[in-house]
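A.,

Following up on our hallway conversation. Structure tokens first:
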């Protein structure tokens, strides 16, 4: 299923895309939470939404063509990011002589994100606004001390991510948090594909980014240094994953800072797309900070 949060006059609503329509799940069954993150935190099973769609009255449906998407999870408890998860990306950066033995973990705050389709903001303080296409994992069940065998069981689904980075500020220190958390520089969406419709652990998915229609990154999640299950095991050695948590899984090579002969930075008026096989396309424009 394609599960989506979308905007209405009454606020964000949880929907399921069914052909060329979106079923407003809360309108079809008002006992269900009106947003995906809240639905998951309440113990909801995404598979149960299929029955809601089958029984949904015409009044709960609206044309997909006029829907304005919100973030697939509006207020995740944690947004966890993995860095340096593709070897070819490691080799194009400053860590090329220091191949990681463990996952590089950092976090993003919600003020650094905009909805699918909304402008990403290039800040006043730096032109070094870089793109990073990423597979994003949405957690569906509370999890701690996972194993490789059961790790993927806690995944509700997957979506596309654009982890925009301000490289100049990222390189100021060994901690990447500042360059990864400028206001309105990242996005994810436009919907979540439930885990049962994709290979277990998100394996074998083609991932690309396109800047103004030109392919910049092209790889496959089979090239992860640390596959999804392995990363979930590592994370839950120390932290409890909660329903609605979001995990960015790292970006492949081809990022702007490594381009030759000159770096390529996103600028006002550009369009950046992330496409992942079996999921879809996340598209945002770029605008300068006012």
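Then the amino acids I'd put at each of the 290 positions:
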């Amino acid at each position: 299923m394609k599960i989506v949060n979308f905007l209405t006059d009454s606020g964000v609503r949880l929907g399921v895309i069914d052909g060329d329509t979106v079923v407003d799940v809360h309108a079809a069954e008002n006992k269900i939470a009106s947003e995906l993150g809240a639905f998951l935190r309440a113990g909801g099973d995404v598979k149960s939404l299929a029955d809601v769609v089958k029984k949904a009255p015409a009044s709960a449906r609206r044309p997909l063509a006029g829907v304005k998407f919100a973030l697939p999870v509006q207020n995740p408890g944690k947004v966890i990011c993995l860095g340096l998860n593709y070897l070819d990306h490691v080799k194009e950066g400053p860590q090329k002589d220091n191949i990681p033995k463990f996952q590089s973990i950092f976090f993003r705050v919600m003020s650094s994100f905009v909805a699918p389709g909304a402008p990403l903001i290039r800040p006043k303080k730096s032109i070094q606004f870089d793109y990073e296409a990423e597979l994003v994992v949405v957690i569906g069940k509370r999890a701690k001390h996972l194993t490789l065998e059961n790790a993927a069981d806690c995944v509700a689904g997957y979506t596309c991510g654009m982890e925009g980075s301000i490289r100049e500020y990222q390189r100021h220190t060994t901690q990447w948090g500042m360059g990864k958390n400028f206001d309105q520089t990242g996005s994810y969406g436009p919907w979540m594909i439930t885990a049962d419709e994709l290979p277990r652990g998100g394996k074998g998915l083609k991932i690309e980014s396109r800047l103004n229609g030109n392919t910049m990154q092209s790889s496959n999640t089979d090239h992860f240094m640390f596959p999804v299950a392995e990363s979930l095991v590592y994370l839950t050695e120390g932290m409890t994953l909660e329903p609605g948590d979001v995990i960015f899984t790292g970006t492949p090579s081809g990022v702007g800072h490594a381009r030759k002969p000159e770096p390529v930075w996103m600028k006002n008026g550009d369009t950046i797309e992330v496409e992942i096989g079996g999921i879809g396309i996340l598209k945002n424009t770029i605008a300068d900070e006012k």
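The chain has a mean pLDDT of 96. Curious whether your intuition agrees with the design.

B.
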